[in-house]
Amino acid sequence: MQSNGKHDLIKRACGFASPFRIERGEEFRLRDIDPGDTLHLGSEDKDRAREALSMGIELLAEFQDKLYAQDRWALLLIFQAMDAAGKDGTIKHVMSGINPQGCQVSSFKAPSPVDLDHDFLWRCMQQLPERGRIGIFNRSYYEDTLVVRVHPELLQQQKIPPELVGKDIWKERFRDIRHYENYLANNGIIVRKFFLHVSKKEQKRRFLERLEKPEKNWKFSANDIRERAFWDDYMEAYEDMIRHTATKEAPWYVVPADNKWFTRVAVAAAIIETLVSLDLHYPKLSKEALEQLDQAKQALLSEG
Ligand code: AMP
Ligand code: MG
């Protein structure tokens, strides 16, 4: 990509991402973010947004190539959301230009008996991206402060000694997560977290679509309706989670999710914003290594 166009695109990306980046949780209120927000872009701008997204995806591929070659940093992208908010589609679209060798996606569902025999971070730690890679968590250890908080019987299943389960358990988990993410940052693993914020009304529309369109039926689970009934509890849990775990090293992006085209642009923009901040470059070879390359070239050319 031409460097002029690239500079412009990066500037625009930062403009799409920064309004939704939360680095200081204390003052965060979920009601300040409108799920229908499109930063004043109307549906007439959709095509231009799609064009910008495909350029953004190209740029992401360039960054990822350098990340991989440099083999120093790793990027961990965590996605959390209510059902039908568009996690899977966003991951699919935004990462579509990425070299699969440099990327790993892990989905965290209800924990297995083996998972429940360990602390709540254990299963996620095993899936951390290697240096040079982008790791994507489709749900994460944050579920242990969300679904487990909304359904206290799940906490019982976690086999924690009862004397360790007190009224401060969520505050303790948030503190442990903050420290853990700080530890990751100190080790060159950059953590960025996305809450795709869909409205209850739009979720209903998407559930109905899943029920009505045969090609979408497979996406529907009866459990989704049961969880919808706990909407307000979930919103409280999400807000509290963001208030306690949004930090400078590991910010949350609370991304409006009622318009899929906008969600994808904002998420791609946030990843671009993050990768730009790493000042990625291809490894610079030493004088000796360059001499070796020259010798290899001469040897090949003299083969005749
Ligand atoms: P889905 O991502 O739609 O396939 O659903 C996965 C389900 O696993 C969701 O209902 C999550 O709430 C649930 N889940 C993920 N992590 C946990 C956890 N730590 N404890 C209990 N349920 C979980
Ligand atoms: Mg689901």
Q: Give the assembly state of these chains.
A: single chain
How much of the sequence lies in strands comes to 5-15%
For the record, the CATH class is Alpha Beta
The residue ranges in which pLDDT falls below 50 over 5 or more consecutive positions are none
What small molecules does this complex bind?
adenosine monophosphate, magnesium ion
CATH superfamily grouping: P-loop containing nucleotide triphosphate hydrolases
The chain-level structural class is: alpha/beta
Which strand order does the major sheet show? Answer: 1-6-5-2-4-3
Total number of helices: 13
- Approximate helicity band: 40-55%
CATH architecture: 3-Layer(aba) Sandwich
Distance N terminus to C terminus? Answer: 36 Å
CA-based shape: globular
What would a concise description of this structure say?
The chain is an alpha/beta fold. The chain has helices spanning about 5-15, 45-70, 85-95, 115, 120-125, 145-150, 150-155, 170-185, 200-210, 220-230, 230-245, 260-275, 285-300, and strands at about 20, 75-80, 105, 135-140, 190-195, 250-255. It has one domain (about 5-300): P-loop containing nucleotide triphosphate hydrolases (Rossmann fold, 3-Layer(aba) Sandwich), CATH 3.40.50.300.
